[in-house]
Amino acid sequence: MNTDNPKIFGQIYDFCEKSVIIVSVLKATSMKFSRQFPTQVTTLIFIFSCLLYINSTGQDNNRQFQNDRSFMERISIGGGLGLSFSDYSTLVDVSPVIGYSVSDDFMVGIGLTYKYYRYKDYYRRLSDRELFDYKTNMYGMSVWSRYFLTKSEIPVIENMFLHAEIEPLLFTTDYALAPQGEYDDIFGNRYNKQNQQQTLTGVFLGGGLMQPVGGRSYMYIEALWNFNEDLYSPYSNPRIRIGVSVGL
User: Fold this and answer.
1) DSSP code of 236?
2) To the nearest 10°, the Cα dihedral for 117, 140, 236, 245?
3) Would you give the end-to-end CA distance of the chain in angstroms?
4) Mean of the per-residue pLDDT values for the chain?
5) If you placed Cys at 176, which of 87, 159, 194, 208 could pair as Cys (CB 3.0 to 4.6 Å)?
6) Is the dihedral of CA 119, 97, 16, 153 positive or negative?
7) How confident is the model at residue 5 (pLDDT cuts 50, 70, 90)?
8) 137: Cβ–Cβ under 8 A, 6 or more apart, which residues?
9) What is the C-alpha to C-alpha distance for residues 222 and 23, in angstroms, rounded to an integer?
10) Across-strand partners of 82?
11) Is there a contact between 121 and 109 (Cβ–Cβ < 8 Å)?
12) Neighbours of 213 (CB within 10 A)
């Protein structure tokens, strides 16, 4: 019998308890911005932030990290499964990721994503006021970076991290925007019934809390804010995600 099991179960329980508190606080205090930021600007901010960090800490990290771990030992895999339900909407999110540790406290990575999104009674036919659901399958990828605050050595804060992510999505809608369309939506936009391919890019900034579970593996919960909201965005701010990362 593995004697580490009680310790791991205790860590999992502690993580879940903290997650419930964080989610409760975020739901109680969250506000939704209607202002949108251009994708190009936020992309530049994302890249600049990463380069600034690497430049400011690169010399010390390189000396410490050069002979520390092999390439495979710097790789981690994981991801998250998201399920969101309400009276009007359903979101199923499957997002596997792979990460690479640039240094002890800085990681970059890529991921794939699949989402099923449904919003009940989103469209209305103006001629007879019949309601229709908005349903779509979304496919995409993400590029992200994560900075861990472990070197702070301050309780709780040392288990936190900052996160930045860009997520382009591709999907198809059954309705196309049309100024004199036969349908409208809950925001008053007009449509005609017509299949149309759409692209959507989310730009997320935020942070989270991790709970180590042994070795270089950990569970995490994070809250991200989308600074490039769109009419078809499946997220509401903040986006809360729970996942796991397993070091190879």
Assistant:
1) -
2) 110
3) 23
4) 79
5) 194
6) negative
7) low
8) 114, 115, 116, 171, 172
9) 9
10) 93
11) no
12) 18
Q: Which domains does the chain have, with CATH numbers?
A: 5-64+75-247 (2.40.160.20)
Tokens of 158: 């040392």
pLDDT of residue 160: 94
> 116: which residues sit within 8 A by CB, 6+ positions away?
90, 91, 92, 135, 136, 137, 138
Place of tokens 């017509």: 194
Side chain identity at residue 201, one-letter code: T
135's CB contacts (< 8 A; 6+ apart) are: 116, 117, 118, 119, 174
Q: Are strands 217-226 and 75-85 parallel, antiparallel or unpaired?
A: unpaired
**Does the pLDDT of residue 169 top 70, yes or no?**
yes
What are phi and psi for residue 122, nearest 5 degrees? -75, -40
